[in-house]
Specification:
Length: about 240
């Protein structure tokens, strides 16, 4: 055959849908979202963001009352896709954020992480990073080939977080969505199973207790470890 084709994956088997189970780390625990167990703790933690900046790039929120938040959780967060988790910070024992798997396609081995909302008490913490590592690790251990992250292209914080986690930029889909009465261009990031072995080593090195001093300050940043692993296409290298 003289036409180019993709590499063979004849030995690959589609992975199962992720089981909705607890993901345990040293700094946090991801629990299947349970409204009676988590709603009040999450709403209390969310209230620390008085100006609601953490909701700017999400198509919902902020929620002014616990009743409204519980209603949204019941309507949107109890399916198998998206599959929501509450992130429990070991330091406080309280649920302090949520994240989900979504766009789960076992037939192609693709899965996305999204609906990420961290309260102020979880942002920029080791626990917050570990939560993302645990979700990525589970996806690749199940046999998924592609792990996606998408966000509003104007959300510079989310874009920096994606690359810090070793997810490579793949482009911007212009005018991809409308939410809260405004346009959204969507930035795409992803890691593949080929990227995963090196990323796993980077995460293990960063999370090693030896990487943190007695005050919990990191000695080496995660970006230092993941930046060299980011994928650049042949086109990127030319320009």
């Amino acid at each position: 055959m003289d036409q180019p084709v993709g590499f063979s994956i004849a030995d690959w088997t589609p992975p199962p849908h992720p089981s909705h189970e607890v993901l345990e780390g040293r700094f946090c625990r991801l629990e299947p979202l349970n409204i009676d167990r988590h709603a009040e703790e999450l709403h209390t933690a969310n209230a620390l963001d008085v100006e609601g900046h953490s909701w700017t790039y999400l198509p919902y929120g902020p929620f002014t009352s616990l009743a409204d938040y519980r209603t949204w959780l019941a309507d949107c967060c109890l399916s198998t896709d998206p599959q929501f988790y509450s992130i429990v910070h070991h330091a406080s024992g309280q649920a302090a954020g949520v994240a989900s798997y979504l766009r789960i396609f076992p037939s192609s081995g693709s899965i996305e992480v999204g609906h990420i909302h961290y309260s102020n008490s979880l942002m920029k913490t080791i626990a917050g990073t570990e939560a993302m590592v645990l979700m990525m690790m589970k996806a690749f251990e199940l046999g998924y080939r592609r792990y996606e992250w998408k966000c509003d292209a104007l959300n510079l914080g989310s874009r920096a977080a994606a690359e810090r986690l070793g997810l490579s930029f793949e482009g911007v889909f212009r005018q991809a969505a409308v939410y809260k009465g405004r346009n959204r261009d969507t930035a795409w990031y992803a890691a593949t199973d080929r990227d995963w072995p090196a990323l796993k080593c980077a995460f293990e090195e960063w999370l090693d207790p030896a990487n943190f001093d007695s005050a919990g300050r990191q000695r080496m940043s995660l970006s230092q470890l993941t930046r060299p692993l980011l994928f650049r296409s042949d086109f990127d290298r030319r320009v």
